Amino acid sequence: MKFIKWLLALVVTLILLVTVYLTVFFDPNDFKPEIVDAVKKQTGRELVIADDLSWTFFPVIGINLGGVSLSNPEGFTPKAMLEVNKAVAEVALMPLFSQQIEIAELSLDGATINLVTRKNGTSSFDGLSGDNSKKAATPAAETSSNAKLNDINIGGISITNTQINMIDEAKKQTQVFSLKSFTLGEFTLDTFAPIAFEFSATMPDMTVSSEGKGELKLSRDFTQLVVNGLKIDTVVEGESIPNKKLETSISLATQIALDKQQLSVDIAQLTAASITAASITAAGKVGVNYATKIPQINADFQLGDIDLDTLLPKTETAAATEQAPAASTPAVEPDLSALKQLDVKLKLTVKSIKVANLSTQNWLMDVGIKNGVLDLTKLNADLYQGKLLVSAQVDARQAVASYQFDKKVTGVQIRPLLKDAADVDLLAGTANFDVKGKGKSLIPEQLKKNLLANGHFDINDGALYGVNIPQMIRSAQAKLKGDLSPETKEERKTDFSSLTGSFSLDNGVATNPDLAMSSPLLRLAGKGTANLLTEALDYRLTTSLVNSLKGQGGSDKDALAGIDIPLAITGTFQKPEYALDTKALLNNQLKEETDKAKEKLKDSLLKKLGGF
User: Fold this and answer.
1) pLDDT in tens, 418-474
2) What is the distance between the alpha carbons of residues 250 and 98, in angstroms, rounded to a whole number?
3) How many other CB atoms are there within 10 angstroms of residue 191's CB atom?
4) Of 202, 335, 432, 510, which shows the fewest CB atoms inside 10 Å?
5) Rounded CA gap, 391 and 435, in Å?
6) Surface-to-core class of residue 187, CB atoms within 10 Å of its CB (0-12 exposed, 13-18 middle, 19+ buried)
7) For residue range 158-168, what is the model confidence (pLDDT) as tens digits?
8) Alpha-carbon distance values, 329 to 227, 298, 326, 534, 592 (Å)
């Protein structure tokens, strides 16, 4: 018992001796001029330590640092690059007697960092490395490589009320990033330690707030950093954000191989939702090799249902803008130069996507980006009871991007697709469609003008809406006979068993030289054009009756059977107009009747001549 008392007394005495020594004989403020001079020589910047340095004691020993500022380069505004209200570094006292160093806590409070980029391109970071940085790096690196740490034990790290101001004088913009808090719990090598943060940012067009927590572990050989169970919740608000607000939540795990410079992220769940949109869910994996000059990224994501129409609604302002005359400012090519700095392979599966009221399901996509070229090697999707298959390439190595594509659609129900995609009720049937094309420029108007393409289509068991060709023929036939009674009202639809054709696209105009339609009653053939820029239609067709219009309101044997009847299609995609050429119809009918009269007269003469 006496031994314990003597031991405690000895420990207390030693603590008191250390305290007296540090406070009386070792004043940390004596080093302030040396620290200020060293910073000045190394960076050319002014370091100010306004407050006196002070010690903290039992149960930990540490030093308090306050009123610290580091200047920006001369002529910059604000003058200070870094300002720190208070910083504390504390070391556990008792382990010192066992020749062990344990950091009890590191804390930083009230730091402000002003990072300025001037109009001439200079920034707050210029000159920080100093002239002697390279010389000093070699021995330091050698020392660190030879040193071997058996353990690191940190009681905790706390960073609070830190603000970073990103000031761009050329753009006259300031972005503010605020780290309300960052904490790291008790940290030891090869052991998971809890982490948490709370962060916000204010940018010219949006604000961001985020908070998260998880745990991290650093291997004893410093080759691997692992973050587990990291959950981050983020809210983004702004006029440019869908519905002005977007909330996201992500749960992930990360492994970083520090020696191989490789990173892998396993995203267990990602959800994103705006105020009026259903949540988008996703999961996937991302791998990054950052040892190369351009980091290599491999990603594989699986997404659920995506309704972009609710996520990105068309506002009244946007609609009014679309209807307004085009601005006098000429459109410019999108800047795709960033593609040259990417080396990405992406696999993406999506349960369903709805955009512009168009519904698709079961997406499977493979994309690669390398050396400024984007390759869509495969895109498969289910589309209105059919299949969509696309491959494409965008080459952004030049200022004006070029592209090429190969698209196939099979077994698609064309009527609901046209209704949903373009609000056009023009055509029905089971459609097969293929087109190959290439072009240059991604400006919408230039894209239509420069696109060169060739394709083919066939539509089976369908109908042409907006026109009833049998009724038009019947009406024309009645008028030619002098019957001016009102037309009977019937559905404006023409059924067909097949509709086929090929087309070429040049200078914004699709040319269709061989349109052909057949049904049990009719045959229709001809050619025409469709202008993608003005949406104008111009078709000249010929239709003929196979037998009669019986079943369509006609007689058993029709007088027009076998006669070619001219038909014109004009108007626009939204409002096509159909018209029979009655003058040509009359001429064809008169010619037919004249030929029949000649035959009848010839037969009569032959009979009178005794059958010669």
Assistant:
1) 888 878 888 999 999 999 999 999 988 888 889 999 999 999 999 988 888 877 777
2) 44
3) 13
4) 335
5) 11
6) buried
7) 889 999 999 99
8) 49, 39, 8, 21, 61
